[in-house]
Design a protein that fits this description.
- This protein is an all-alpha fold.
- It has one domain.
- 85% of the residues lie in helices and 0% in strands.
- The chain has helices at 2-24, 30-36, 40-45, 47-69, 76-99, 102-122.
- Helix 1 (2-24) runs antiparallel to helix 4 and helix 4 (47-69) runs antiparallel to helix 5 (76-99).
- The longest helix is centred in the last third of the chain and has 24 residues, at 76-99.
- The protein is elongated, with a radius of gyration of 15 Å.
Length: 123
């Protein structure tokens, strides 16, 4: 279970690193506009907001990465940080699904929830 938990923690971190790149650096590009369903004008008008949102996603990724560095669910500190970060991702994904797109639930919340369950089972 420990390896599976670590894999899902890493997967969720990688997903969030990708989101950081899209929101902070590629927001105005066709790729990001397609991913988020925005027009060129909307992307231009919301670039600063998206960059701020990307920064927060970066904090989630950082929490997950640090949790793995300190030992993941195998250590008290790694477990606590992983649970906190994964729970934040689940909640953010649920909110995003309710306010923006159900797809966010599948992309963010489901892998984070799996990682959360696996982290508890690994203990």
């Amino acid at each position: 279970m420990l390896i599976a938990a670590d894999v899902f923690i890493a997967l969720v971190a990688l997903i969030h690193i990708y989101i950081v790149v899209l929101e902070m650096f590629l927001w105005r590009t066709p790729r990001a506009r397609a991913a988020f369903g925005t027009s060129e004008a909307e992307a231009e008008a919301t670039a600063t907001l998206a960059a701020n949102q990307g920064l927060y996603n970066g904090f989630l990724a950082a929490g997950l990465i640090v949790s793995l560095i300190v030992g993941g669910p195998a250590t008290v500190a790694g477990f606590a940080l992983a649970v906190f970060s994964l729970a934040c991702v689940v909640v953010a994904g649920i909110y995003g699904a309710a306010t923006v797109s159900v797809r966010i639930l599948l992309v963010q919340s489901v892998p984070a929830a799996i990682g959360l369950v696996l982290s508890f089972l690994a203990r």
